[in-house]
Amino acid sequence: MTMKMPRSLLVSCGMVLALGVSGAAMAQQALTERQVRTRLDEKGYTRVNDLKFKDGVWKADARSAEGKHVDVRMDPKTGEIYPDEQVANLSERDVRAQLSAAGYLNVHDIDYESGVWTAEGDDPSGRDVELKIDPATGKVIGKEKD
To answer: Do domains 33-83 and 92-145 have the same CATH topology?
Structure first.
Protein backbone atom coordinates (compact mmCIF):
# COMPACT_ATOMS: atom_id res chain seq x y z
CA MET A 1 0.00 0.00 0.00
CA THR A 2 1.47 3.39 -1.04
CA MET A 3 0.71 6.48 1.02
CA LYS A 4 0.55 9.90 -0.60
CA MET A 5 2.14 12.78 1.27
CA PRO A 6 0.27 16.05 1.24
CA ARG A 7 1.91 18.56 -1.11
CA SER A 8 2.39 21.07 1.74
CA LEU A 9 4.41 18.49 3.71
CA LEU A 10 6.62 17.80 0.69
CA VAL A 11 7.23 21.53 0.19
CA SER A 12 8.02 21.98 3.90
CA CYS A 13 10.51 19.09 3.84
CA GLY A 14 12.16 20.57 0.76
CA MET A 15 12.50 23.95 2.45
CA VAL A 16 14.06 22.40 5.56
CA LEU A 17 16.58 20.54 3.39
CA ALA A 18 17.40 23.70 1.44
CA LEU A 19 17.92 25.70 4.62
CA GLY A 20 20.17 22.98 6.02
CA VAL A 21 22.28 22.96 2.87
CA SER A 22 22.57 26.75 2.79
CA GLY A 23 23.51 26.77 6.49
CA ALA A 24 26.22 24.19 5.81
CA ALA A 25 27.49 26.25 2.89
CA MET A 26 27.67 29.34 5.09
CA ALA A 27 29.56 27.42 7.77
CA GLN A 28 32.08 26.26 5.15
CA GLN A 29 32.77 29.87 4.15
CA ALA A 30 33.72 30.90 7.69
CA LEU A 31 37.24 30.46 9.03
CA THR A 32 37.73 27.95 11.83
CA GLU A 33 39.42 28.82 15.10
CA ARG A 34 42.56 26.96 13.98
CA GLN A 35 42.65 28.93 10.69
CA VAL A 36 42.21 32.21 12.61
CA ARG A 37 45.10 31.36 14.95
CA THR A 38 47.29 30.40 11.97
CA ARG A 39 46.46 33.65 10.16
CA LEU A 40 47.25 35.76 13.24
CA ASP A 41 50.54 33.90 13.68
CA GLU A 42 51.46 34.45 10.01
CA LYS A 43 50.87 38.20 10.47
CA GLY A 44 53.18 38.35 13.50
CA TYR A 45 50.63 38.34 16.31
CA THR A 46 51.64 36.44 19.46
CA ARG A 47 50.11 35.62 22.83
CA VAL A 48 46.65 35.29 21.27
CA ASN A 49 44.09 35.03 24.09
CA ASP A 50 40.32 35.10 24.48
CA LEU A 51 39.73 34.12 20.85
CA LYS A 52 36.01 33.94 20.19
CA PHE A 53 33.47 34.42 17.42
CA LYS A 54 31.19 37.25 18.51
CA ASP A 55 29.07 39.90 16.78
CA GLY A 56 29.73 38.32 13.39
CA VAL A 57 33.55 38.57 13.57
CA TRP A 58 36.44 36.77 15.25
CA LYS A 59 37.82 38.70 18.26
CA ALA A 60 41.02 38.22 20.25
CA ASP A 61 43.52 39.89 22.55
CA ALA A 62 47.08 39.59 21.25
CA ARG A 63 50.53 41.13 21.03
CA SER A 64 51.51 42.81 17.76
CA ALA A 65 54.82 42.11 16.03
CA GLU A 66 56.10 45.23 17.86
CA GLY A 67 55.07 43.70 21.22
CA LYS A 68 52.14 46.07 21.81
CA HIS A 69 48.91 44.79 23.35
CA VAL A 70 46.12 44.97 20.76
CA ASP A 71 42.54 43.87 20.39
CA VAL A 72 41.98 42.45 16.93
CA ARG A 73 38.91 41.69 14.87
CA MET A 74 38.98 39.37 11.85
CA ASP A 75 36.62 39.05 8.90
CA PRO A 76 35.36 35.45 9.20
CA LYS A 77 35.34 34.90 5.42
CA THR A 78 38.44 36.72 4.13
CA GLY A 79 40.74 36.60 7.16
CA GLU A 80 41.34 40.37 6.97
CA ILE A 81 42.67 41.55 10.35
CA TYR A 82 41.58 44.81 11.98
CA PRO A 83 43.73 45.86 14.96
CA ASP A 84 42.13 48.30 17.39
CA GLU A 85 44.67 51.06 16.78
CA GLN A 86 43.91 51.14 13.06
CA VAL A 87 42.87 54.52 11.69
CA ALA A 88 39.56 54.67 9.83
CA ASN A 89 39.73 55.84 6.23
CA LEU A 90 35.99 56.50 6.11
CA SER A 91 33.93 59.02 8.02
CA GLU A 92 30.62 58.28 9.73
CA ARG A 93 28.91 59.96 6.78
CA ASP A 94 30.76 57.64 4.34
CA VAL A 95 29.72 54.58 6.35
CA ARG A 96 26.09 55.71 6.38
CA ALA A 97 26.19 56.23 2.58
CA GLN A 98 27.78 52.80 1.99
CA LEU A 99 25.15 51.06 4.14
CA SER A 100 22.35 52.94 2.41
CA ALA A 101 23.70 51.92 -1.00
CA ALA A 102 23.79 48.30 0.20
CA GLY A 103 20.08 48.48 1.11
CA TYR A 104 20.27 48.97 4.89
CA LEU A 105 17.56 51.18 6.43
CA ASN A 106 17.10 53.01 9.75
CA VAL A 107 20.87 53.02 10.32
CA HIS A 108 21.85 54.40 13.72
CA ASP A 109 24.44 54.15 16.51
CA ILE A 110 27.39 54.35 14.11
CA ASP A 111 30.65 54.20 16.06
CA TYR A 112 34.31 53.55 15.36
CA GLU A 113 35.63 51.15 17.97
CA SER A 114 38.37 48.54 18.20
CA GLY A 115 39.53 49.08 14.64
CA VAL A 116 36.18 48.68 12.87
CA TRP A 117 33.01 50.70 12.35
CA THR A 118 29.87 49.39 14.05
CA ALA A 119 26.27 50.29 13.29
CA GLU A 120 22.75 49.12 13.90
CA GLY A 121 19.87 49.12 11.46
CA ASP A 122 17.53 47.03 9.35
CA ASP A 123 19.03 44.80 6.67
CA PRO A 124 17.48 44.68 3.17
CA SER A 125 15.08 41.94 4.33
CA GLY A 126 13.88 44.10 7.27
CA ARG A 127 15.70 42.29 10.11
CA ASP A 128 17.16 44.40 12.93
CA VAL A 129 20.93 43.80 12.80
CA GLU A 130 24.20 44.91 14.34
CA LEU A 131 26.96 45.39 11.77
CA LYS A 132 30.76 45.41 11.73
CA ILE A 133 32.15 47.46 8.83
CA ASP A 134 35.61 47.56 7.20
CA PRO A 135 37.14 50.97 8.06
CA ALA A 136 38.80 51.32 4.65
CA THR A 137 36.11 50.10 2.26
CA GLY A 138 32.78 50.36 4.09
CA LYS A 139 32.06 46.69 3.32
CA VAL A 140 30.02 44.80 5.93
CA ILE A 141 32.37 42.20 7.43
CA GLY A 142 30.09 40.93 10.20
CA LYS A 143 26.37 40.90 10.81
CA GLU A 144 24.27 39.56 13.68
CA LYS A 145 20.65 39.86 14.67
CA ASP A 146 20.24 42.67 17.16
So the answer is: yes
